[in-house]
Amino acid sequence: MAVDRNALKKWEKIRQFALGMPGAAEEFPWGETVAKVNKKVFVFLGVDDGSHPLGVTVKLKDEAAHAHALTCPGAEPAGYGLGKSGWVSIPLGHKGAPAAELLCDWVEESYRTIAPKRLIAELDGG
After folding, report:
1. Taking the mean position of all CA atoms in its chain, how far away is CA 1?
2. Can you tell me the distance from the alpha carbon of 49 to that of 70, in angstroms, rounded to the nearest whole number?
3. What does the UniProt keyword field contain (predicted)?
């Protein structure tokens, strides 16, 4: 499967953004890339080796953001029962996929849902 250059650029932007959050760390459980804060995943970035389509999975508590994310081409509630808790998987390579800026907003929302208050204060410049 050929790697979609546009999707890869977007993926790289989102990864950098996620890892720039206060206290964020990159880990590779199950051979996937994830960004964690306080030992909890706030964004699943999947694999970037071309074996699967590029995508991100974020936790969106805000109903409007959650509904919007699910309207993206190919988006769906995350597997393994995570969808029930607000996790949404969004493919990056589909025509009409969201822009990196919007995806970064969603990554930030996911981070805010999971990060401890002191790190959120740091993010807000507190």
Report:
1. 22
2. 25
3. DNA-binding
Contact yes or no for 4/97 (Cβ under 8 A): no
Residue of 38, 34, 29, 37 whose CA lies nearest to 14: 34
Please tell me the distance from the alpha carbon of residue 58 to that of residue 89, in angstroms, as a whole number: 7
CA 72 to chain centre: 14
**Distance, CA of 54 to chain centre:** 11
Delineate the domains of the chain, giving CATH numbers in brackets: 5-118 (3.90.1150.30)
**Residue-by-residue DSSP string for 84-103:** GGTEEEEESSSTTPPPHHHH
pLDDT in tens, 71-83: 999 999 999 999 9
Give how far Cα 111 sits from Cα of 1, 15, 50, 96, 106, Å: 31, 13, 26, 25, 8
| 42-71 confidence digits (pLDDT tens) | 999 999 888 888 999 999 999 999 999 999
Residue 28 near residue 41 (C-beta atoms within 8 A): no
